[in-house]
Specification:
About 75% of the residues lie in helices and about 0% in strands. By secondary structure, the chain is mainly alpha-helical.
């Protein structure tokens, strides 16, 4: 960038004082200062944007590397699972072909499928005794706000 020493700045200031005049010099200096500040902010914004774009590119590269690594791991796991499945099927076919019909019929049937218990919270709530609901303060009926206020209003104020 430009290298201004003290002597060059003093020379520029003296020329500006002569050309512009002492009345307008403060206003011109203020304007030049604000313009320089805006220029510096603009340069800083551009630098920040460039840095953000560089970081974004790095993150995209890292993301692509991570995705390729994940695909490689997935493929290796699939290959291992398929080879294990083939080995198990081969072993199973060897075992079932070597045994007779009586030995095969003695194998237990597979367990039944899992069924969700279908829990019904309304049924459970209805099974709670009334005395327990009253003791615990469970509301049994819907009541409006005005009715609730009237219910808990002290006697004498109606």
């Amino acid at each position: 960038m430009l290298d201004f020493g003290f002597d060059k700045l003093a020379l520029i200031g003296a020329v500006a004082l002569i050309v512009i005049g002492p009345e307008k010099l403060p206003r011109v200096a203020r304007t030049v200062g604000t313009l320089l500040g805006k220029a510096q902010r603009y340069v800083a914004d551009v630098k920040a944007e460039v840095n953000r774009s560089i970081e974004l590119e790095e993150l995209q590269k890292m993301k692509s590397q991570f995705e390729t690594a994940a695909r490689d791991v997935e493929q290796s796991v699939r290959q291992e699972v398929s080879s294990a499945t083939q080995a198990l099927n081969q072993t199973w076919s060897d075992v079932t072909s070597d045994t007779s019909y009586e030995a095969a019929s003695s194998i237990a049937p597979p367990p039944p499928e899992y069924r969700h218990p279908k829990k019904n919270w309304r049924l459970k709530r209805g099974a709670t005794p009334m005395w327990f609901k009253q003791k615990a303060g469970v509301r049994r009926h819907t009541q409006s706000g005005a009715a609730r206020v009237a219910r808990f209003r002290p006697p004498g104020i109606r």
